[in-house]
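Hi C.,

You asked whether I'd gotten around to modeling the 414-residue construct. I have! Everything is below, sequence then structure, no commentary in between.
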Amino acid sequence: MQRRQFLNAFAASAGLLLPLGPHAWAATLAPGSAAPTAKKLIVVMLRGAVDGMNVVAPVADPEYARLRPSIALARPGQEDGALDLDGYFGLHPALAPLLPLWQQKKLAFVHASGSADASRSHFDAQDYMESGTPGVKGTQDGWMNRLLGALPGETTPTRALSIGPLMPRILAGAMPATNLANGAAGTRATPLDRPAVGRAFDRLYAGHERYGKVYNDGRMAHQEVMNAANGGMLAEMQAADNGAPLPNGFPDDAARLATLMRNKPDIQLAFIALGGWDTHANQGAGKGQLASRLQPLGQGLATLAQRLGPLFDETVIVVMSEFGRTARENGNRGTDHGHGNAMWLLGGKIQGGKVAGEWRGLAEAQLNEGRDLPVTTDFRQVLAHVAERHLRLDGSALARTFPGLPAGAGLQLI
């Protein structure tokens, strides 16, 4: 086995990945001398294109029920009806655990948002949303990796954390990041945690001229995560989806992530992807397939907010999906690939309790290609708003993180 292959295998077995490209050795250097910000960002990616029109449903629009005769949410107050947000929009009833955050103005939505690229391919659209460069397939790194490089302070392998089966596209790049498996296995001991085995590999690689730094960084990152988990509440954290798991286990992963972030303050960025949102058939309304996915998602987000404790005031959670779904239901009582969607923002300092963005209604003349929501707010504008107002990035850092960023959307959410 080649040394590079071994190091990749070691990283995978330890639950982490480090860059092994030409920039690997510079990746752990501090990008600047300024002190790091205490502000945190968590991104939740819903792979498969969640139906934003039934997450934040325009129940007061007469076209809504006409376009969706079997899957439209009932009006607030009716059986399995939407939860009233502002008299026009209603929240899916499966997301009831999030209603207190809305009422506390710590939850907001940006409707008719998404990628300017017209692709309805899951693979392409997810790639564009993770690279932050819609329509450009050659981008090598993800926008969260570029963000990591733009933040002040020293970058360590545990400053950016992903939970999932593989290191995601969004964190790919020159800066180091850590990847943990879903579930309790993510903080379970590996063979390298056995003293005799660890010492043997230390003798082989710790002092190696070329690979020693990557090996040591990997060992350190794994040990730090293990220490954080074991020092906290470990017992409590026991195709379209692109490998992302269904959201059923998300409440446990959310609790584990909150514990890690509380116990290890240098974790600043976190990412998790959830699958199961490609509802072409039997989508359901207040109950059914979509509801069964939304319920653990809502519970997990509420758990994350609660378990973060005071840290929630310093955190913004962004929920996004590659594109929305058709305004009109199809012949299988589901929805097909669409365009505009709804992004979610949660956090202690979010100016929430509102549905932001330019909403044009559901009249056919207002729909994209007569079939789905237009994108009136570019997803990068939402992310840049968070990066600027929450993480305090300046204009040049924003331009590096989001090349080709459109002019501001006038958002006032932070």
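If it helps when you're writing up: The first strand starts at residue 40 and ends at 46.

Thanks,
B.
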